[in-house]
């Protein structure tokens, strides 16, 4: 038995073993009905946040899952985080969407308001094949250059990384946010305290 597969020492202490990816089995239990609709599409002020997830070779990832969480249009983080309720009345500010075979995703939501002086953004989590853990990033709203320049996180990044965190306003009023897992134009990913990267 190699040192990498041995799980106990002679003294009985646990020895860490390397992580392994299994699956992905995301389609088995994680998606749920209307998980991509934080609000019904007919809601006044509803907006579509959409894009494509790309791997390091620039190919679309057909089996990823994205989660978003956000403040409401009033800038307040409220509601029932993580709730699966999609009754048109309960605002959770949270949704989950698998990518299509073409690597695309789409959420129907509202434009978030600013929280604590930061520029408005969607918090995005990515689960995908080949990842030992989920990835965290943000999709900032485009258009308010002063707010983006003053944002504490964005202002701490170089210009190339900042550009990967700002969504693009489409002609139809939607917001496009493509995610590149690695390689040229890789999306800037975040780590948080107590999160194993």
TrEMBL record:
Tagged with keyword Oxidoreductase: yes
Entries under SUPFAM superfamilies matching the protein: Aromatic compound dioxygenase (SSF49482)
InterPro entries linked to this entry: Intradiol_dOase_C, Intradiol_dOase_core, Intradiol_RC_Dioxygenase, Protocat_dOase_a
Any one GO molecular-function label of the UniProt entry: protocatechuate 3,4-dioxygenase activity
Keyword terms: Dioxygenase, Oxidoreductase
CDD domains named in the record: 3_4-PCD_alpha
Signal peptide: none
Intradiol ring-cleavage dioxygenases domain boundaries: 47-117
Keyword Oxidoreductase: yes
Family, similarity comment: Belongs to the intradiol ring-cleavage dioxygenase family.
UniProt cross-references to NCBIfam families, sorted A to Z: protocat_alph
Protein name in the entry: Protocatechuate 3,4-dioxygenase subunit alpha
Organism of derivation: Ornithinimicrobium tianjinense
Gene, per the UniProt record: pcaG
């Amino acid at each position: 038995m190699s040192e990498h597969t041995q799980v106990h020492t002679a003294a009985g202490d646990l020895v860490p073993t390397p992580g392994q990816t299994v699956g992905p089995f995301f389609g088995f239990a994680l998606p749920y009905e209307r998980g991509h609709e934080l609000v019904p599409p007919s809601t006044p002020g509803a907006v579509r946040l959409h894009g494509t997830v790309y791997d390091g070779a620039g190919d679309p990832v057909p089996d990823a899952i994205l989660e978003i969480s956000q403040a409401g249009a009033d800038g307040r983080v409220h509601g029932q985080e993580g709730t699966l309720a999609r009754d048109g009345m309960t605002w959770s500010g949270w949704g989950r969407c698998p990518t299509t075979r073409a690597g695309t995703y789409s959420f129907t939501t509202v434009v978030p308001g600013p929280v604590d002086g930061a520029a408005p953004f969607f918090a995005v989590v990515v689960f995908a094949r080949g990842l030992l853990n989920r990835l965290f990033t943000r999709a900032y709203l485009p258009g308010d250059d002063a707010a983006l320049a003053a944002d504490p996180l964005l202002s701490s990044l170089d210009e190339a990384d900042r550009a990967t965190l700002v969504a693009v306003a489409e002609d139809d009023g939607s917001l496009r946010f493509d995610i590149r897992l690695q390689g040229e134009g890789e999306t800037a990913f975040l780590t948080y305290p107590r999160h194993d990267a």
